[in-house]
Amino acid sequence: MSHLFKCVILFIMLCTTAARDFKVGDHFGWHVPDPTDTSFYTHWAERNRFQVGDSLVFEYENDSVLSVEKWDYFQCDASNPITAFDNGKSILNLDSAGAFYFISGTAHHCSRGQKLLVEVMSPQHHPVPVPESPPPSLLAPQGISPSPMSPSPEAFSPVASSPYDSIEEDSASIMLSSSAVMAPFATFLVVLLLAL
């Protein structure tokens, strides 16, 4: 019985995921992408899974990183950032679920692809695809300038609702589709078998 208790404690410890630091752009860092790969940061974000508590590490030279509203992200407007950093290495904590928008503060870098949209999930949610271009409803008609947007809670809401949002909490919690859950579960089974 003592071995079973130790196995359960070990399983619980393995299931708790530690926050991770993501170096934006991996080895490339935070720079203007190659003209043939202007979706570089979109693809980078799609390859990663961001959870509440994780951090983004921006490393750059002679540049900056701005946290902006959704409209400013799609329009590459650096005039009204939520926060701005220019120290060469900026670490930003993803402290809530939803979309976070980042652009370069250097002129014309954003329009050349140096922008990042990350979708941060709470532990019980699944990834949502991130659109590469703004939905038509976000584009202002020609000749009409958009009214300035003030920061609002909607700015950090998910880009789209997850199809799993309607599933009851109990059934969502038993879904074992994530490798982050499967690895500790497999470890638990191995330890349990060894303990017997």
Automatic annotation (TrEMBL):
What PANTHER family would the database entry show? BLUE COPPER PROTEIN, EARLY NODULIN-LIKE PROTEIN 7
**Keywords recorded for this protein, A-Z:** Cell membrane, Disulfide bond, Glycoprotein, GPI-anchor, Lipoprotein, Membrane, Signal, Transmembrane, Transmembrane helix
- One GO location term (cellular component): plasma membrane
Q: Where in the cell is it found?
A: Cell membrane
Coarsely, its chief localization is: membrane
Q: What family is this?
A: Belongs to the early nodulin-like (ENODL) family.
Domain Phytocyanin, by residue range, is 20-122
Q: How does it sit in the membrane?
A: Lipid-anchor; GPI-anchor
Per UniProt, the ranges with Pro residues bias are 126-138
Which residue positions does the secretion signal occupy? 1-19
User: Can you name this protein?
Assistant: Phytocyanin domain-containing protein
SUPFAM superfamilies named in the record: Cupredoxins
Pfam families registered for this protein in UniProt: Cu_bind_like
What parts of the sequence cross the membrane? Answer: 174-195
Q: Where is this region: Disordered?
A: 124-161
Instruction: State the Gene Ontology terms under molecular function.
Output: electron transfer activity
